[in-house]
């Protein structure tokens, strides 16, 4: 069986990205890095654990993508530009096929974002991946959860709900017969990372978060952070045509959109006077954003469907909620 | 059962250390940090997995200490000063007693090193902890593995071998009757972190590594990095009186010292002309260092005992070596 050092040499040292701010990468006790002046370093850590966040037999290329995408998404939500990533990977045994697939998904996404793997740890144990990503944002320009003001408009990027449908396909074999099941399963693992949108929103959005626990849960983090309420119009939630066919109706698709976790789309708020210019800037970069509600002074979340108040009994995903 | 957010609030937000270079800590998508000018940021990631690196029923306070000590040790080996740490913790279920003990061990050590917890992730799954620590070292002053020169003297800090004896006590119930068994078990988990020594060695040591895989294995990382050989005098290896009583003899204790992993002592090389001044500086700070050999041009590792060459069949610990 190959040793730890062989594994690292074989899979984790052949990346295309070589950044000038990495003075020393893998191969010593620490990496040595140089941060640019006048920036904040944004840091986020996320774990993907087999059995909790993905099934052991999931396509390893998708797992590699998802592990990194969920981390990059946190940088995007702060308006930060990705730079460095550290990887801790725990494997029951060295599995060449799995590692090759995993690294393909991981490095394709890392290369696309000029993100350099700077080191990590390879250990034996139950399958899991923990990544720590770091990026840069000019000081004072980071998008926080705490700046939403009453009257601001609430927006989301992309389409919501596909990830939840994909999870159903994974967990309920009967759903594999429904339209677009395979594509929705792929989307569950292979979410986009909204880095360009996060950068566009610097100095514009009054608050921002990535949708990892589900819209209903994540908008409440903005509400708590900003000490405000929010009103969401469920009939405005953007859903893909594939999801509508899968759920056999737009209304059900929009219920998926409300609760779907691990979407990695951004939810953000904009002062009214910036709505038009941000719409225009997003169109120019071909970034889809949709207005879905507004910030209120009520301290609570109100859901509406075609102007009618509806009950909110859907909660976000919490790993330790029983 | 408490939710993820409750857990984080209860255990991971009550630290004493608040650093001025942390602009934003836990509670948003990312932490925001400011690195000092003209420094390198040193970054290291290490995982501790239950069943691989510690037993599930191990004292959680010791596990908390060990998880952080092994990471701080990588900073020490580069001559870096600890600053920030991110924690990913995976738990089968939220266990208040375990978390309370773990946090006690973790934060005591973090506080002692002015190290601030800046964020992380709490997930459900098999017990494991992955930490990413960051620290600072002036540019050009980091201690690398690659600078050892022929004729340099080889040193280690502290005593070696206790960790291996402690591991035997943990894994072999019969050893629990031997002298100092409990104390050696404690030392296996509660190694010191040689940060002060690493800082003292900046601009002095020609190479440095922390002993995590075992002296025989780790000195070979210096040899490979520096393209040199080394000669070690086993009779000079520093061993504690407790270990000598445990092994019933100094020679056996020194065999433990050769192969003992997870020691987190430093192994470093010094040019001859610096040996006396570094000895003196170390004494002033009450830091124990011992000369154990020298760098050679042979490209191989030679072991000697009282001047006699001995066989080297002991290899370091490799998580994936079968």
UniProtKB/TrEMBL annotation, chains A, B:
Mg(2+) 4 binds at residues 29, 44, 74. The keyword Transcription does not apply. Keywords: ATP-binding, Kinase, Magnesium, Metal-binding, Nucleotide-binding, Thiamine biosynthesis, Transferase. It holds the Pfam family AIRS. Residues 27-136 form the PurM-like N-terminal domain. Mg(2+) 3 binds at residues 29, 74, 210. Mg(2+) 1 binds at residues 45-46, 121. Residues 149-305 form the PurM-like C-terminal domain. ATP binds at residues 120-121, 145, 212. Mg(2+) 5 binds at residue 213. GO terms for molecular function: ATP binding; magnesium ion binding; thiamine-phosphate kinase activity. Mg(2+) 2 binds at residues 46, 74. It comes from the Bacteria. It catalyses: thiamine phosphate + ATP = thiamine diphosphate + ADP. Its EC number is 2.7.4.16. Pathway: Cofactor biosynthesis; thiamine diphosphate biosynthesis; thiamine diphosphate from thiamine phosphate: step 1/1. SUPFAM superfamilies: PurM C-terminal domain-like, PurM N-terminal domain-like. Reaction mechanism of ThiL seems to utilize a direct, inline transfer of the gamma-phosphate of ATP to TMP rather than a phosphorylated enzyme intermediate. Belongs to the thiamine-monophosphate kinase family. Catalyzes the ATP-dependent phosphorylation of thiamine-monophosphate (TMP) to form thiamine-pyrophosphate (TPP), the active form of vitamin B1. This is Thiamine-monophosphate kinase. It comes from Vibrio ezurae NBRC 102218. The gene is thiL.
């Amino acid at each position: 069986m190959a040793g730890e050092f062989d594994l690292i040499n074989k899979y984790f040292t052949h990346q295309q990205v070589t950044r000038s701010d990495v003075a020393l990468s893998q191969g010593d006790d620490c990496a040595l890095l140089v941060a640019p002046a006048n920036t904040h370093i944004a840091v986020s850590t996320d774990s993907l654990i087999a059995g909790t966040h993905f099934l052991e037999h999931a396509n390893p290329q998708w797992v590699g993508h998802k592990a990194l995408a969920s981390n990059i998404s946190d940088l995007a939500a702060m308006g930060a530009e990705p730079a460095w990533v550290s990887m801790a990977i725990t494997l029951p045994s060295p599995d060449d096929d799995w590692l090759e697939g995993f690294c393909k998904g991981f490095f394709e996404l890392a290369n696309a974002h000029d993100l350099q793997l700077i080191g990590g740890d390879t250990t034996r144990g139950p399958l899991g991946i923990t990544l720590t990503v770091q990026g840069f944002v000019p000081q004072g320009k980071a998008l926080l959860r705490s700046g939403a003001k009453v009257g601001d408009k609430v927006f989301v990027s992309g389409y919501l709900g596909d990830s939840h449908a994909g999870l159903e396909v994974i967990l309920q074999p009967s759903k594999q017969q429904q339209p677009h099941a395979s594509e929705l399963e792929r989307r569950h693992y292979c979410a986009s990372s909204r880095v360009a949108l996060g950068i566009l929103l610097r100095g514009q959005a009054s608050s921002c978060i990535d949708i990892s626990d589900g819209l209903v849960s994540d908008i409440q983090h903005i509400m708590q952070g900003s000490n405000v309420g929010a009103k969401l119009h469920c009939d405005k939630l953007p859903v893909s045509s594939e999801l509508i066919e899968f759920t056999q109706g737009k209304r059900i698709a929009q219920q998926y959109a409300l609760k779907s976790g691990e979407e990695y789309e951004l939810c953000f708020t904009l002062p009214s006077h910036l709505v038009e210019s941000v719409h225009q800037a997003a169109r120019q970069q071909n970034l889809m954003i949709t207005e879905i509600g507004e910030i209120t002074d009520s301290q609570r979340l109100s859901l509406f469907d075609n102007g009618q108040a509806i009950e909110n009994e859907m909660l976000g995903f919490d790993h330790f909620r029983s």
